[in-house]
Amino acid sequence: MLSLVDERLEVAPLVARAKWNTGTNIEAPKRETEILDRVASRAAEAGVDEAFARDFFQAQFEASKLVQRRLHRRWQKEERGPFDNPPDLAEDVRPVLDRLTPALIEALAEWQPLVEDPSVALYLEARAPELVTGDFDGEPRRVALEPLKTQ
Ligand SMILES: C=C(O[C@@H]1C=C(C(=O)O)C=C[C@H]1O)C(=O)O
């Protein structure tokens, strides 16, 4: 699970580059709704609670947008021009995220019974800093992992 979350988070800088070059909005609510619709039906098939799956994916979107916003802010300050050879959002980047979706749902099916277990929060505290990207003071990581434990 943590490696998959990390893989997904590592795509965010590529999204940021693609959008920087084309001036595309970081927010893509239609795209998020499409993903969540697919997630809901796949979650049902995999025996994952739909609300849990939606919360988890919404958190992945928020974490990705945090990274994108922080990078765009940095590049604005630097008055950065466009990148050479940027990835194409539709052709190169979104397909990578789409390939991760079913794998993440499988991981959620395994994780679901553990969410209430207090030792899971301890496990996340110990392992997440090693396994999940810690850019920007670890805030994207915290946001991405929040739904995987109870408060
Ligand atoms: C990654 C993108 O940016 C945002 C984050 C998304 C995600 O993490 O899947 C989806 C839509 C956008 O709000 C994107 O536009 O594809």
TrEMBL record:
UniProt KW Phosphoprotein keyword: no
Entry EC no(s): 5.4.99.5
Residues annotated as domain Chorismate mutase: 1-72
EC main group: isomerase
PROSITE patterns (UniProt xref): CHORISMATE_MUT_2 (PS51168)
Cross-referenced SMART domains: CM_2
One Pfam family matching this protein: CM_2
GO MF annotation, one: chorismate mutase activity
Name of the protein: chorismate mutase
Higher taxonomy: Bacteria, Pseudomonadati, Pseudomonadota, Gammaproteobacteria, Oceanospirillales
